[in-house]
Structure formats: C-alpha cells, structure tokens
C-alpha cells in the first residue's frame, strides 16, 4: 500500500483483511480505523501551529543600527519584547531531525 492513509484506504484495508491474515493483522486494521480521526485532529492542530509561526521580515535596529531586514517569527517574541529570530524554537522543535 502506497500513498496517504485516507479514510477510504484504511476502510478498504480493514474490509479486505481476512481470517487467514491472523488476529494480529485484523487487530491492527481495526486500530488504524480507530486512530485515524485522532491523527487527522493532530494534523489540523499542527497546521494551526505552523500557521501561527510564519516567517516575516522585520526591520532590525537593535543589532543593526542603520536598520536591516531580519526574518523573524510572526507568533513569537522574546522576554525583552523583541521578535524571535526565525526559525523560532517552536518551528525548530517541529522539524524532522535526520
């Protein structure tokens, strides 16, 4: 099976599992169907976090007295009231580490 695990793909998988596949495979198929709504909910939440933490260009006079555009996070700030440099800790935490 390749491609995204859509509800249709998971339902087809669960419906085509036979008793010859064994109880472990049947249990896995049922568990996938149960977990799919939670995965979809988490994907939606993750998208909202990424949407909140978008990069924007801001004029940086703190580190560049003559002013220079710096990429900062639209959803973060620092304790001293300044912008958080992008990628912010939130986006870095979401990045896949290889």
Summarize this entry quickly:
With 98 residues, the chain is of the alpha+beta class.
Characterization of this structure:
The protein starts with 6 loop residues before the first helix and ends with a helix. The mean pLDDT is 82. The protein folds into two domains: 7-50, no CATH class; 54-94, no CATH class. A three-stranded antiparallel β-sheet has the order 1-2-3, with no helix packed on it. The protein has helices at 7-16, 23-52, 89-94; strands at residues 55-60, 68-77, 83-85. The longest helix is centred in the middle third of the chain and has 30 residues, at 23-52. It is an alpha+beta fold and 98 residues long. It is rod-shaped, with a radius of gyration of 22 Å. The chain is 47% helix and 19% strand. The protein is built from three helices and three strands, in the order ααβββα.
């Amino acid at each position: 099976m390749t491609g995204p695990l859509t509800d249709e793909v998971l339902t087809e998988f669960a419906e085509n599992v036979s008793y010859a596949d064994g109880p472990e495979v049947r249990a896995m198929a049922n568990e996938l169907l149960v977990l799919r709504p939670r995965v979809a909910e988490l994907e939606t939440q993750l998208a909202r976090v990424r949407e909140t933490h978008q990069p924007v260009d801001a004029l940086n006079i703190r580190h560049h007295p003559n002013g220079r555009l710096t990429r900062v996070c639209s959803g973060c700030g620092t304790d001293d009231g300044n912008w958080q440099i992008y990628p912010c800790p939130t986006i870095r935490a979401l990045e896949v580490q290889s």
